[in-house]
Amino acid sequence: MEESKSPFIFGYVLSLFSPRFYDQVARLWKGAAIGYAALLVLVYWVCFMVVTSPRLAEIKPMIEAGMPAGFPSLTYENGALSSSREEPFRFEEGGEKLLLIDTGNQVSDEERQGFEIVLTDTEMIVPSEATSTSLQDLADAGLLTTGTMTPTDWVAYLDETLTWLYWLAMPFLFVFHFIFILVGALVLSLMALLINAILKKDLEYPALYRLSIVAATPAYLFSLVAMVLSLTMAVSVFNLVGLLIHAAYTIFAVSSVRSRQPPPVQMGPLGLP
Questions:
Q1: CB of 51 closer than 8 Å to CB of 228
Q2: Taking 70 as the threshold, does the pLDDT of residue 262 lie above it?
């Protein structure tokens, strides 16, 4: 009787310990590992969104806490910017001069040189790069609108923008991660070729590549557990642990495939094949 493949969903558990599962992957999946990888990455990012999306509510309080005291209301009208403060506003943090709002053009060019960004009544200047952009050009590009923005408005705007960027990034991260798992399996399949030769499994390369893809599952489960438990470690250490898990399970996967014995020769009544 023909052996059936284990459903994908079982593979996310069986890949942790089952030699029989990896044997099925090598012999029966025939390209199905690509769909398995796509579902694995999808599950990962859905879990990521479930864990992290509630934290979006923390963005607005963080922006409010980071809003510098005395930040002025800014009004853009008739191609010019004006401030609710008569004197220039300077925003510095940790010894870094980040922003200077000088809509009255009271600050000298020499003092402006220390700031990352300078806003005048008509220009946005980046002194370190000796570049300037007309505010009218920003308005034409849709980056600046006529009206007044209070500090409260800026908080709401930044909160909305960061939330929007979070959701916009998800599809791109999914595609990038999917390509990453396929490329990573391609690299580890070269190691699988060596293990295949040492163990004399006589597996063809497509089977070894499928095994390398599915062997990434425990590493992804490790990442999920670390994310849910909010485990903290250096990125380099985290990536190294994931790579070692993937490599170890690739070796386990290849060694799990059963050697194929030739079928017994049927002997005739005279002892001849």
A1: yes
A2: no
171-200: burial string, b at 16+ Cβ within 10 Å, e else: eeebeebbeebbebbeebbeebbebbeeee
C-alpha–C-alpha distance, residues 66 and 2, integer Å: 64
* Cβ neighbours of residue 155 closer than 8 Å, sequence gap 6 or more: 60, 63, 64, 67
Quick one: DSSP state of residue 261? P
> What is the percentage of the chain residues whose pLDDT exceeds 90?
47
Query: What whole-number distance in Å separates Cα of residue 35 and Cα of residue 25?
Result: 13
* Whole-number pLDDT of residue 167: 93
Strand-pair category, 131-134 with 123-126: antiparallel
- Angstrom distance (rounded) from CA 46 to CA 61: 25
State residue 1's pLDDT score: 41
Residue type at 135?
L
Task: Extract the runs of DSSP E, i.e. beta strands, from the chain.
Answer: 74-77, 80-83, 89-93, 96-101, 117-119, 123-126, 131-134, 147-149
Tell me the CA distances in angstroms from 84 to 46, 141, 157, 239, one per residue in order: 45, 25, 19, 49
pLDDT at site 267? 52
Give CA–CA dist 260/118, Å, rounded.
73
Q: Is the pLDDT of residue 95 over 80?
A: yes
Question: Within the chain, what is the greatest distance between any pair of CA atoms?
Answer: 113
The average confidence (pLDDT) of the chain is 86
CB 210 within 8 A of CB 25: yes
